[in-house]
Amino acid sequence: MLRQASQERIKLVTLMAFISMPLSGFVTDIYLPSFPAMARNLGVDERDIQLTLTTYLLSYGISQLFIGSILDSIGRYRPRLLALFILLLSSMAITYTDSVFIICLWRAIQGIAVSILVVATRALFADLYQGERLKNYLSYFTIVWSCGPILAPFLGGYLEKIFHWKANFYFLAGYAAVLLLLELFYSGESIAQKKKISIGENVKVYKTMLQNKLFILGILVLGLSYSIVMLFNITGPFIIENTFHFTSVTIGYCTLLLGFSWVIGGLIAKRRMNMAFKKRVAYPIAVQLTAIVSLLVVSCFYQSIYIMVSFAFLIHIISGVLFTTFFTSSMLFFPANAGTAGGLMGGLVYIITSIASSLISISGNVSTQADLAVRYLLFAILLVLVVFGMYRVQARG
User: Fold this and answer.
1) Do 252 and 31 meet the contact criterion of CB atoms below 8 Å apart?
2) What percent of the chain has pLDDT over 90?
3) Are 218 and 330 spatial neighbours (Cβ–Cβ below 8 Å)?
4) End-to-end alpha-carbon separation of the chain, Å?
5) What residues contact residue 243 under an 8 Å CB cut-off, 6+ apart?
6) Does the pLDDT of residue 5 top 60, yes or no?
7) Which residues cross the membrane (predicted)?
């Protein structure tokens, strides 16, 4: 039992948890620069390749809705081991197929595995820490997690250029294998008291959470903020390679830069955590909306990869600010049911993101800087409406 372990072992397990956090970002983003190459190699349309990401996001989101309560009942340790083994196996399996349909099936399985890993890791912090220390670790959660989206496309671009797009999945298998060994040798169960599985009780807990308007509105902000970032991740590789005529390595550098914008946003949010709602949330959204409108106007006269990425950098900083702000506050709503709350929150966020990515795919080809700006604007308007609703709920309370 980790709660009764030495401080040195708890520190080691905490470090291991932080090391595992970027894995979900790697699973999501490492093959993004390879989208054009995968489409050519498999002889399919770009929308079919985007579907492999949408399938993963949807599976990842839906499974988190149920994983949290299950982990509160059976513990965190054994499910983490199983998740890492499945991730290792599925990553290797993807390298042995040239069928988009089969890849989508394995990506759906990966979504379930990563959801187990992420929800268990989030709950582990709530198991081992309390109070300000827990709040401090949770605020670092998104910052450390963002190392995945930062480094993954950069690494993936080089892996695809030097080897093949399948090298991305060999890397994921290796990452999972290392974490699996560390878990086997050094980790253990962190939950103090497992809750009995009770459908009635679980429904009651979910009902309480879903009736909390600030909790749900916060999840909508998280989903829309992340959707803004995923918008570039899904469409950017095709714009950069097909319109601006750069290689997958350049795609990797662009996503690397934009990954840093997410970290910067997280660090800014951490420093602004105790500010009033208006300064903490409304001001950043106003800046983001202004940047998007400016990009749209500039796109009418001039298009360049440097202009597109520069504006996206600022836009993604604000998304990082909003995501970290609401992630920390939302995780503190239900500390007694950390696994369930984390699973519900993460699940709904990724369901929102998967729906957004599906809408992006069916809305037509995003082939220009202006196309990207229009879709940024649509998401930003939705974000403004949600935050306005949140402000009204807080004013009434």
Assistant:
1) no
2) 18
3) yes
4) 41
5) 303, 367, 368, 369
6) no
7) 12-33, 53-74, 81-102, 108-125, 137-155, 167-186, 214-240, 246-269, 281-305, 311-334, 341-362, 374-393
Q: Which of 184, 313, 185 lies closest to 256, judged by CA?
A: 313
The rounded radius of gyration (Å) of the Cα atoms in the chain is 20
Compute the distance between CA of residue 354 and CA of residue 54 in angstroms, rounded to an integer. 5
pLDDT confidence tier of residue 3, bands split at 50, 70 and 90: low
Q: Give 316: exposed, middle or buried? Use CB within 10 Å, 0-12, 13-18, 19+.
A: buried
pLDDT of residue 332: 67
Burial of 239 (0-12, 13-18, 19+ CB in 10 A): buried
Is pLDDT above 60 for 297? yes
Q: Which of 15-29, 89-103, 319-333 has the lowest mean pLDDT?
A: 319-333
Q: Which domain holds residue 107?
A: 2-396
Three-class SS string for 174-223?
HHHHHHHHHHHHHCCCCCCCCCCCCHHHHHHHHHHHHCCHHHHHHHHHHH
Here the CATH number for the domain that contains residue 314 is: 1.20.1250.20
Mean pLDDT of 359-384: 84
d(CA 42, CA 86): 25
